[in-house]
Amino acid sequence: MIITRLREHAEREGLLADVAFEERKVRFVIEIDPTGKYLALREPPGRTVTKGKKEVTEPFEMLVPKMGNRNDGKTPCLLADTIGRVLVGHDEKDADRHTHANFVAWVGEAADATDDPACRAVLAFLETADADPESLASLDAALAEAKPKPGDWITFQVAGEGLVLRREAIKDHWRARFEERRAAKAQGKEPITCLACGCQAPAVDSHDKLRRVPGGNPSGVSLISADKTAFGSYGLKKSQTSPVCETCEAAYTRALQHLLDSDRTSYHDWDAQVAFVYWTREPEGDLFSLSAPDPQQVGRLIKSPYTPSGREAVSDPNEFYALSLSGVGGRAMIRDWIETTVPVVQANVAQWFVDLGIVLDRGINKDDKGNVPEGCEAGQIHHAWPLQTLVRALGYKQSQGFEVPTSASSELFQAAILGAPLSPRILDAATRRIRADGSLHPARAALVKLTLNRLGRQRHEGGSEMHETLDESQANAGYRCGRLLAVLSRLQYLALGRTNATIVDRYYGAASTTPGAVFGRLLHLAQAHLAKLGATKPGAATNIRKDIEEITTRPSPLTEFPRQLTLEDQGRFALGFYHQQADYRSRSADEGGSEGEEPVPVPAADDGQLALDIDEANE
Fold first, then answer.
1. How confident is the model at residue 54 (pLDDT cuts 50, 70, 90)?
2. pTM of the full predicted structure?
């Protein structure tokens, strides 16, 4: 089923137009003259993509000969390969030195077969370099200055004639060579039924590797492979245990790589080591993004159920497919497969963003100059939370990346696509991180609200929805205790100013789990703070007393503080605390804001996920 859907996508996108070539990122181009003399090392401009708030330039992409599996350590790629395989002395691996000799031989074969002058120029350059390594001194210096990464690819161009691999004579030569290799591999094999298309054809022994799969080898992973005797049965070896014909193998690997390479159709969580790809049966113009949601698109999606579309309901709605996979060594492991329709997904994703709506207690997503984008200012209702931001809200920052709960990404992705409820594990992880870090930033508050509302709907608890902003009519004791702690925190700041340790630093953990053991002491301390504040700012003291009275008496008297809060009430405590603080920070001067503004806490070490930037260190 999965391979069939991927094959359909490859055919629709025209990915099988020329199976002898494949897209590769090539960072460097060696420019030579028609005699093979080195002229310059060039780095062609690549594609600039926006990842979070960063603009990243990816290497130049071009078509190179498709080589398939190169685990034998001796198979080169014609006229383009890694630096160590193209140039002697730039990699000390014996395998790369062996491949270099074959690289030169293949270039010589292409030159003889085509009599192409550009190919002969490349051959002359390679032969001169092998005979006299000192002739590459200027090239070596240019490479040292460019600081290439392991695995960077390099190719050739002749001055005034463009890239050698784009010459039609070279392309035709490789197509003929590619067909010869395919025929040689299929010779003597018995036809077998392909699992994808059902045709009778020889099965492919080894499948192309997929790149950019978290957790897998940097060289790539295989979706179908079997290299041990224990994996075989009925005399079938290698990938013949799951037989796929050559056409379907090329189709599904190209389609999956195409999806993995596009930010519009994939989401990579390098912290949790899982990648999600999603696509539709037919092209869909305004498809959502969970990795970097656009606030305007999210706004349209949220309003869509209440906005007449002007279109009649179709009897055959567009289908939606989603696949999640992780790398384990050299193999890809499928973790989940989703098949549904686009209208269902759009409705679920719209509800997802509605549930994530939360008032901002501070501006988020600041650029390098400290400017906050429109819709991300304090006091605004924010819905467009990236999936990675939510996952990182459950973890903590390490020297490289974040330590996050293993299943969080998959559970949140399924909740967004399928409208599924979230397990209490998500709420437990969020409340633990709040207590451990002493940090309740908007992303965590949004995640707590999302989880509470979905758990309530799962149990059909009507009227228990948590709001985006402060809810003074909320009777839940946990929510009101959270609000009260925020009021007492503000009182302490107004009376004493900045202190080394606030009551939130000292008492949040106990107050959010066993309020009955803490709030008696806190209210006793509050009397001293009120007296001190009343002597200098009587108006502020009066406002604080009103807030305490309102919380403890409305909508019903809070006669005693609970001895212990359940997990869900701990979440409501967090929301009450957050909402009350956000309300204070949004008040104007004539509403009490002029009496002193409690500062926004300095972000903890893991609060960097408020920005939409993505840590690329693990890529």
1. low
2. 0.80
